[in-house]
Specification:
The structure is a homotetramer. By secondary structure, chain A is mainly α. Helices cover about 70% and strands about 0% of the residues of chain A. Chain A has ten helices and two strands. The first copy, chain A, has a two-stranded antiparallel ribbon. In chain A, about 30% of the residues are buried. At the A-B interface, α9 and α10 of A face α10 of B.
């Protein structure tokens, strides 16, 4: 985050970079809040589209999705335009996630034929990575409402990691199972399944019926039993240290 | 607990506060024991009312519940009357729990019509918070039978936390599931389910069939995999330290 | 173990105590090995009697059980006779376990009518405590084959604790379930169930069908999630320390 | 690994030993890579043979298996020939694993009649030990692509241990269950089962139906709940230490 702390002269490029990275000035804060809110809506739209809805609402959701994707496309282009080293910015993991999150929606808009021919289900599942966009907001301790402590930031990141793991696993599981598994009709079913599986409870009321669903489960379990205890032990250690 | 160690003069307010907080004088001890015993009965009544019982016994249990709630109402009012700072006392978590524990019962007595119209099931589930009242008895190390060690008090608190988590989860799960789930007919079924789920065993012989039951399960699991290992690791650490 | 290191004079009482506690002289070692072997057979007989066997073999097993119980009764009486402080010996946890382990068998022999009237199933389940007798052999580091290291002795005790927990849980679960649960026909079924439950795997292929079976399961799980990780963390810490 | 760093004179024995143990010279590296690749194929063949395949492909796989086993037999003989102390080499755990991995295949080739009479299923299950051969490649930190750090080598060994545990458990479970259990038709089914069981999730969609399958499960669970947390805690500790 070694950014120039103030825009100099009429350099638009610096100005763009400044406001996209800044969380202190009113405009920088406003941009931050709008982007966070749009991302929340973007994720909610993804979840909502898995539920049976009246056709009218589905059209509204789709328009909302395309609109938000357009805003994020503009954001992506502006970040690239404003970056000091553009090649580095393209390779930046946050930028890669930004692109992946909007690409499936854009593909369907720009190339509807190709997208229909290609596996729509796979495109759907890729869209779940948009939840990863939230990481950008935990990059530093300055939030719109003020600066939070280091401990709280770390706890927030860990909580986000667990939520992202649950969300991405549920999204992938939903994608590969919902067509053939009568027990997995909505994202909610998949989320319940993933919480039960990754907490190692494993009731068995919902089980994968496809080979892809089994692989998603195996990968999620292996990720979960490494990531969750590791992160949880960190949080617990921090709590314990704070109590002393 | 920076209370005045002795009641001075004829100040009733001080006297009331003194005896409700004191565990050393015979009267203070007696009040403490009676309240603890009444709370135990209050919890047992909650559990017993989930079992199929003859109508006569149900009436007895209901009268017992109303009677105990009346005693606790008097206690609540006296605590408020005796408090140095009454606004602070109202906001005190222990006082909030005290009120929540008796409110559902009082509502049914005072406003039977409204309570019937309102969701009785929800009122029922709120009544499970009465188990939280036990925390007040672990506030300090002085018990009616004597003073216990710091370690024992901490272990007792932790054990109580685990029991409260199991009890509240079972109460909520029972509330939302027992109407539609043939496997959850009594509080005992729900308690068995919660122990099997929160220990991450997860046999799957009892599973939630309602969306609400699933959310209760997800919330309990997430609470359990954070709270139980955290508390257990504390107990284990204490035991290990004591062995050295 | 502050025993007199050598028998003095013709004092039979000292002699008895000496040989029952000693693991170094050939006679002391022989007594130790015989008692350990008899206890192993005693446990195996308990397990074997849960399997469907030809009537002839059942009679042999029963006679074996009575014979070993008689030997252990003699051992118990001799220990009491040889003890410096007999009241203390009666209250000794090892002696209590010794008595509990043989009492059910003796009751059936001495009072066949009463035992039949009393709940035989309950007597059966109490017999599983005979596995606790093995603890006496881990009292000190001197074994018939030589002295083992402190670490090895501790590891052995921990392993024994886990095995005893599994064995006693399986024995209790078998006792309360085998009459009504078609999935629990032998001790082996109950042992598999207990390993699956206490490891928190919980497949759900075998589940308790009785209320007693559920309580045994809940108690075993709660014991297991406290005892096993605690013991395992101890072993792991020892291994880790040894690696340094 | 106290090997002579360079072959002297025309001593074939030293030369053989040198190239089989060396990872630095081009020839040593080439031998290492070929053996690793052959072992990968050897394991893949074991897995592939559990799937329903056209007869032609089955013949190809069988020839591949015999061919690779022949190469490994040559390697085994050369290692023995080149060893300074041949008796020690025979007892070397790596050499024992090498022999066990190829013995079942060789037995079927050399003594087809005996192998058919003997339990082919058992021979099949023994073949899974070939996955243990990979341990030899983690003996030191010199890989064909360069030297890796101590931490990375340890992490690699631990990952391999977990994979070997899963793989061997799946292989044994497949061997004992696939004949009678309609849910365990391929190695993939057994692998999914083992991941679900050893992570303690335990859905119960696949459960052992044979007594042997239950014992494999019990043994794998007990191995897993000791080995996996132990190894995982090591990895986590290393990661945590590295972060400091």
């Amino acid at each position: 985050m070694s950014t120039d702390p103030s825009p100099t002269g009429h350099d638009w490029r610096d100005l763009v970079r400044y406001y996209l990275l800044d969380h202190r000035t009113p405009l920088g804060k406003a941009i931050d809040i709008v982007l966070l809110a749009l991302n929340l809506v973007f994720v909610v739209v993804f979840v909502a589209e898995t539920y049976p809805l009246p056709a009218g609402l589905q059209v509204v959701l789709w328009r909302l999705e395309v609109g938000i994707a357009a805003v994020f496309l503009v954001e992506y282009v502006l970040r690239l335009y404003g970056a000091r080293d553009r090649l580095e910015e393209v390779r930046n993991p946050y930028a890669v996630v930004d692109l992946l999150a909007i690409l499936p929606t854009l593909l369907v808009v720009v190339l509807p034929g190709v997208a229909t021919v290609a596996n729509i289900g796979f495109l759907r599942s890729v869209r779940v990575v948009r939840v990863l966009r939230f990481y950008r907001f935990t990059q530093d301790a300055e939030f719109f409402f003020g600066t939070i402590s280091d401990d709280a930031l770390r706890a927030l990141k860990l909580l986000l990691t667990v939520l992202v793991l649950l969300f991405v696993s549920a999204g992938l599981f939903y994608s590969v199972e919902h067509v053939v598994n009568p027990d997995v009709r909505t994202f909610g079913d998949a989320f319940y399944y993933v919480v039960v599986a990754l907490s190692t409870v494993g009731f068995g009321d919902i089980v994968p019926v496809t080979t892809a669903g089994r692989w998603v489960t195996v990968a999620s379990i292996l990720a979960g039993i490494i990531v969750i205890p590791w992160q949880a032990s960190k949080i617990v250690r921090e709590w314990t240290d704070r109590e002393k």
